[in-house]
Specification:
Chain A: Keywords: FAD, Flavoprotein, Oxidoreductase. Chain A: InterPro entries: CO_DH_flav_C, CO_DH_flav_C_dom_sf, Diverse_Substr_Oxidored, FAD-bd_PCMH, FAD-bd_PCMH-like_sf, FAD-bd_PCMH_sub1, FAD-bd_PCMH_sub2, Mopterin_DH_FAD-bd. Chain A: This is Xanthine dehydrogenase family protein subunit M. Chain A: Pfam families: CO_deh_flav_C, FAD_binding_5. The complex is a heterodimer of chains A (289) and B (909). Chain A has three domains: 50 residues, Uridine Diphospho-n-acetylenolpyruvylglucosamine Reductase, domain 2 (2-Layer Sandwich); 115 residues, 2-Layer Sandwich (Uridine Diphospho-n-acetylenolpyruvylglucosamine Reductase, domain 3); 109 residues, CO dehydrogenase flavoprotein, C-terminal domain (Enolase-like, domain 1). Chain A is built from twelve helices and 14 strands. In chain A, the strands form four sheets. A five-stranded antiparallel sheet of chain A has the order 4-5-10-6-7. A four-stranded antiparallel sheet of chain A has the order 11-12-13-14, with helices on both faces. In chain A, α2 links the parallel β2 and β3. The radius of gyration of chain A is 19 Å and the shape is globular. In chain B, α11 packs parallel to α19. Chain B has 909 residues and is an alpha+beta fold. In chain B, the strands form eight sheets. An eight-stranded antiparallel barrel of chain B has the order 30-31-32-33-34-35-36-37. A seven-stranded mixed sheet of chain B has the order 3-5-1-12-9-10-11, sandwiched between helices. Helix content of chain B is 25%, strand content 29%. Classes of the chains: A alpha+beta (289), B alpha+beta (909).
């Protein structure tokens, strides 16, 4: 289990990295934490000619605030993001979800951007980005662009990212202070990709839901936004929410699959339950507070 | 217990949690595994494997691959065939469907090795392997047991896809069914056990270094260097001395490494052909998909009980998927041998078959017969619920307690000192079942589903002398002139800690410090033949050998000391490395001083005594030593998600004398972790084309520390009849664990319904099937679904003896015949001689092992019935029922617990 031969470069800037990606004409692969890529290289399921190591690019790391939003550099380690005070204050849903990404050891190496860019449909980070309304910043020698997380994912491990493009930042819009975090996943072992999971945030104003962002993971080929459920919640008073009915609407937007760990029917059945349970618990806590 | 009464040191070592001698190097990364071996000029091997499950090899294109950097050679079977190899099973019998090291014209499973690339580095070997052009004409694969029953032949040279079969189908109608018909209660249970990938921490590995004229040193991940050396020598037809096997550290064996298999033997053969050292290190992808798998069984058990829940009769129909190239064709007769000896069951019958399919071959796996406990204990619990009897009480009514022994089971197993009932009582006394039932009832009112499972088992351990290659063990022991002790053993540790436990025995019995003992093992040049870690035997047999050898050595030390001090032997004691004479403290000497005299000044020794301080003992224990246990597990099932949380697990085991409780508990815990994996997580599924679907640990779910609880241990120990009183404990957790956990889950699910058919693993989806009484898991969609019949009609029955046609011309049977008996551990061929006198039949069966005369047989129109009593491997009576038809004889032989075997005979050519 040894990787096929490849060249290795460690650019010092985004511009340099983009130039290498452009020149490689699709033959290059970006490595940050390597927690997924290294096994794929060893299994020879990924055989790039050039491995572009972005760990030396300072501007791709760290958390910053800008214009009513929080920006995470894609090469920020998951463990660092978990400890980050700004994220804890601004994006508690993201921090909650991060605690379920891989294992303690893999989070020391794995990056936020790596998980976002990989596009594993059962992973926490892509669904969190979709739920919270994040934008993915992308650079190439052709210029820069920004894509809504919801439009970033095309299918399992497939994104809108072109071979010459690099993710340079993930920007999460602010949610009001005191917003409600929704998170629950069902995984066979801690650290496994979820059989089914959901993540989101609810903002309250005057006893009713003023803003809602909720997404599923493990419930389709891409992270699935629970649009019908969000619409049903918006403007609804806390006392009028029928958690089971909302959960049923949420499941209606999904397209889960069968694999040897669980059936689509299991994912729908249990997904609906964890959605309702999470919603109920989150709002109960809110009403007591 | 004998180990308390001691004339040696006051310091006890047996029974203590002595720190392990192995741990220092293992925990600091200084272990010496096969991959740590680096030799000058060593080349690396990568295999090209079949991506197709079944088909004909049209062509193998090597031109491009041969030109790759670093490539030294690429071998196919045509190249390796230059050195003839006859692969054998673990029982040292020929593999019936002869397996070649690399694929020979056809492939029979995905992962079948086809080519062997030799290059300067493993990476270069893999680069070239990727460029080998394989053209295979794919044929429809047989994947499941159901496929094997009806599909084309996996091995075209065979008559059918039955790899092995035993049992007596007639017995159902003749004996068992009438008893079941009369039974007030009949309970049937079916289990489908998934395929397991053995997944040792260290994958397989082999380094072969040709030396001198035909000698070779082989480093191989194995369970016994002696057994591996013997195996390699035999399959290559070499003298055993020409092969030296070294295996210092091995990361887990579990049965996978019982014998070197195709890839390891291919490395040895290739090293001889290539003339330089070769290394093959299996990677995890190969380990998961192309190392011998385990389990994959389908079994149905029917039991009849009286009104009080006492067993009346039982019948089971067992099938296992052997894959294409099993490490010995197997119908798993041991499942049936060990299902009932601990129970008062008047009548038991079975049919049991192994089937060839186009999947990876099966090998032994910790407790290979474990299905006997899983099906028995889960069926008993099902019966307990049906009859409304407490599961503990149901077991009490059926188990054989010590005062009722010895007893010989209906299959001929004699039990003299088993204690599953006593273990159960100890367990029950420790676990407050009444309090749990109250808690369970309260929890159910809140929608929380708790369950308690209890199971008992017995396990044959320390097998010796009854079958190849299970033998006794030799220990060489000496006190060096330095006063330190050296032991040379044929034990082997893949994590077992044998250097620790054997040193504890020596320290305890000799009266020396544990730190002053060095144990050498892991090398076929050290010690004498022993099969190492297989069948839970090392503590029992090597422990007994070490025990006695140490006593012999202590006797010599005392004799020397008594002579030198002019004292009686009885007055001499040894403690802490010092030799004392009672009443004469000034005469105390260190072992070093005594050893210096024994080696350097032998004139001072008693007349006629050999110089030095050495002892040697080869221990031949009883053929089998039984271990017993009862376990209890408490779970909570989340009715919304189907997840199982293990809240508590208590083991009450009887493994006789405990040398080191830490080592014993480690063995139990490891087996239980595997049990939890089998019940809840692990599965190697195949798709319909024969592709293994769990190719990484992302999909093959091993239990982790989060999934395995802290276990509680009650050591309920009665010494065995062996020297030292040990009983084997290596496999028990893996055998009793699955039924204990399944019973707990079934108890939790009882308010919803029965697990009508148990399909493992019990995924959350399958648990919701029971909770919701509908198809959540999608099981209906699975094509391998087979209709469960309480007693499945055998589809490929043992050929019936043809009713003699009145006019059938039959010649005389008198004289010699070459007879073949298809026994469970391989075919046996011998000479049969018959003499007739009217309807009376007598004669003898003769083989190199001896001749067995028989008389009192009957012959009627060519149909012969006679009985032969044999002592080996067990005392059984062979009942022949065969039919002469012209120049051939066919029929069957009932072999007691070994079931029924096919018999054929022809006239000697």
């Amino acid at each position: 289990m040894k990787p096929a031969p490849f060249d290795y470069v460690r650019p010092a800037s985004i511009a340099e990295a983009c130039a290498i990606l452009s020149e490689a004409g699709g033959g290059a692969t970006v490595i940050a934490g390597g927690q997924t890529l290294m096994p794929l290289l060893n299994l020879r399921m990924s055989q790039p000619f050039i491995l572009v190591d972005i760990n030396g690019i300072a501007e791709l790391k760290g958390v910053s605030r800008a214009g009513g939003a929080t920006r995470i550099g894609p090469a920020t380690r998951q463990a660092e993001a978990l400890r980050d005070a700004t994220l804890a204050r601004q994006l508690p849903a993201l921090v909650t979800a991060l605690g379920h990404v891989g294992h303690y050891q893999t989070r020391n190496r794995g990056t936020v951007g790596g998980s976002i860019a990989l596009g594993e449909p059962a992973a926490e980070m892509p669904a969190t980005a979709v739920a919270l309304g994040a934008e993915i910043e992308i650079a190439s020698v052709r210029g820069r662009r920004s894509v809504k997380a919801e439009e970033f994912y095309l299918g399992p491990y497939m994104t809108v990212l072109e071979p010459d493009e690099l993710v340079t930042g993930i920007t999460y819009p602010d949610w009001p202070e005191g917003h409600v975090v929704l998170f629950r996943e069902v995984a066979q072992r801690p650290g496994d990709f979820a059989l089914v999971g959901m993540v989101g945030a609810l903002a309250l104003e005057g006893g009713s839901i003023a803003r809602a962002g909720i997404a599923w993971f493990g419930m389709g080929p891409v992270p699935v936004r629970a649009r019908q459920a969000e619409a049903a919640l918006l403007g609804t008073g806390l006392g009028d929410i029928d958690a089971d009915a909302v959960a049923a609407l949420a499941v209606a937007d999904t397209a889960p699959f069968d694999d040897h760990h669980a059936s689509a029917e299991y994912r729908r059945t249990v997904g609906k339950r964890i959605f309702a349970r999470t919603l109920r618990e989150a709002l109960d806590i809110r009403s007591v507070a | 217990m004998s180990f308390h009464a001691s004339s040696v040191g006051a310091t006890r070592y047996v029974g203590e949690r002595t720190p392990r001698k192995e741990d220092g190097r293992l925990l600091t990364g200084r272990g010496q595994f096969t991959d740590d071996v680096q030799l000058p000029g060593m080349m690396h091997v990568a295999y090209v494997r079949s991506p197709v499950a079944r088909g004909r090899i049209v062509s193998i294109g090597l031109d491009v691959a041969r030109e790759m950097p670093g490539v030294q050679a690429i071998y196919t079977q045509a190249d390796l065939a230059a050195i003839p190899v006859q692969m054998m099973s673990f029982f040292f019998t020929p593999i019936e469907s002869p397996v070649t090291l690399l694929a020979d014209g056809r492939v029979a499973c995905v992962g079948d090795p086809v080519c062997m690339v030799i290059a300067e580095s493993r990476a270069q070997a893999e680069d070239a392997a990727a460029l080998v052009e394989l053209e295979i004409e794919e044929e429809t694969a047989l994947v499941t047991i159901a496929d094997a029953r009806t599909g084309p032949l996996v091995h075209p040279d065979r008559d059918d896809n039955v790899a092995a079969e035993m049992g007596d189908a007639d017995m159902l109608e003749e004996v068992i069914q009438p008893l079941l018909d009369k039974a007030p209660h009949v309970v049937t249970h079916t289990i489908r056990h998934q395929r397991i990938a053995q997944s040792p921490m260290e994958c397989r590995a082999c380094v072969a270094s040709p030396e001198g004229s035909g000698e070779m040193t082989v480093w191989v991940g194995c369970q016994s260097p002696h057994l591996a050396a013997r195996y390699v020598a035999l399959v290559l037809g070499l003298p055993q001395e020409s092969i030296r096997v070294i295996a210092k550290d091995v990361g887990g064996g579990f049965g996978l490494k019982n014998i070197p298999w195709r890839e390891e033997v291919a490395v040895v053969v290739a090293a001889r052909l290539f003339g330089r050292p070769l290394k093959w290190i299996e990677d995890r992808y190969e380990a998961l998909t192309a190392s011998s798998h385990a389990r994959e069984q389908e079994v149905t058990l029917t039991i009849g009980l009286d009104e009080e829940g006492r067993l009346l009769a039982a019948w089971s129909d067992y099938a296992c998927n052997n894959g294409a190239w099993p490490m010995g064709e197997d119908a798993n007769i041991a499942v049936h041998m060990f299902m009932w000896p601990a129970h008062k069951l008047p009548a038991y019958g079975f049919v049991t078959r192994g089937w060839y399919t186009n999947t990876m071959g099966l090998g032994g796996y910790r407790g290979p017969w474990a299905m006997e406990s899983l099906i028995r204990e889960t069926t008993l619990d099902k019966a307990a619920r049906k009859l409304g009897i407490d599961p503990v009480e149901l077991r009490r009514r059926n188990l054989l307690y010590l005062p009722e022994q010895p007893v010989t089971s209906s299959m001929g197993i004699e039990v003299t000192d088993i204690t599953p009932g006593e273990c159960l009582e100890k367990l029950v006394a420790h676990v407050d079942i009444a309090a749990f039932r109250k808690e369970q009832a309260e929890a159910r009112k809140e929608g929380r589903y708790l369950g308690m499972g209890i199971a008992t088992y017995i396990e044959p351990t320390g097998s010796a002398g009854a079958m190849q290659p299970m033998t006794g063990e030799t220990v060489h022991l000496r006190i060096e002139p330095t006063g330190k002790v050296v032991a040379m053993l044929s034990t082997h540790s893949q994590g077992h800690g044998t250097a620790t436990t054997m040193a504890q025995v020596i320290a305890d019995r000799l009266g020396v410090a544990y730190e002053d003992i060095a144990v050498f093992e892991g090398d076929s040049a050290i010690g004498a033949f022993g099969p190492g870690a297989a069948g839970s035997r090392q503590g029992v047999i090597a422990g007994g050998a070490t025990w006695r050898a140490t006593e012999l050595l202590a006797e010599k030390v005392k004799a020397v000391a008594a002579h030198l001090s002019n004292a009686s032997v009885e007055a001499v004691t040894i403690a802490e490395g010092m030799v004392h004479v009672e009443g004469a403290p000034e005469m105390s000497r260190s072992l070093k001083e005594l050893a210096e005299i024994a080696y350097g000044d032998p004139a001072r020794l008693p007349e006629g005594m050999a110089s030095g301080l050495e002892a040697q003992f080869r221990y031949q224990p009883p053929p089998m030593t039984m271990t017993s246990a009862a376990h209890c597990c408490v779970v909570e099932v989340d009715a919304e998600t189907g997840f199982v949380k293990i809240l508590r697990w208590i083991s009450a085991e009887d493994c006789g004398t405990v040398i080191n409780p830490g080592v014993v508990e480690g063995q139990i815990a490891g087996g239980l972790a595997q049990a939890i994996g089998q019940v809840l997580l692990e599965e190697m599924p195949y798709d319909a084309r024969g592709n293994p679907l769990a190719a990484t640990f992302k999909d093959y779910l091993m239990p982790t520390m989060f999934d395995v609880p802290d276990f509680e241990y009650l050591h309920a120990n009665t010494p065995s009849q062996t020297i030292g009183g040990m009983r084997g404990v290596g496999e028990g957790g893996c055998i009793i664990g699955p039924p204990t956990l399944v019973n707990a889950i079934a108890d939790a699910l009882a308010p919803f319904g029965e697990i009508e058919e148990l399909t493992l693993p019990l995924t959350p989806a399958r648990i919701l099937d029971v909770i919701e009484q509908r198809d959540v898991s999608g099981r209906q969609a699975q094509p391998e679904k087979v209709a469960a019949a309480p007693v499945a009609a055998p589809l490929a029955p043992v050929p019936e003896v043809a009713e003699p046609a009145p006019a059938a011309p039959t010649g005389s049977v008198d004289g010699d015949w070459d007879m073949t008996l298809k026994a469970p551990m391989g075919g046996q061929t011998f000479l049969a001689h018959f003499d007739t006198d009217g309807a009376a039949l007598s004669g003898y069966l003769s083989a190199p092992e001896g001749r067995q005369e028989f008389s009192g047989g009957m012959i009627d129109n060519g149909r012969m019935k006679f009985e032969v009593k044999v002592d080996k491997p067990m005392k059984i009576t062979l009942k022949y029922d065969i039919q002469l038809d012209g120049d051939t004889i066919t029929g069957k032989c009932r072999m007691g617990m070994f079931g029924t075997a096919k018999v054929t005979a022809v006239r000697p050519s």
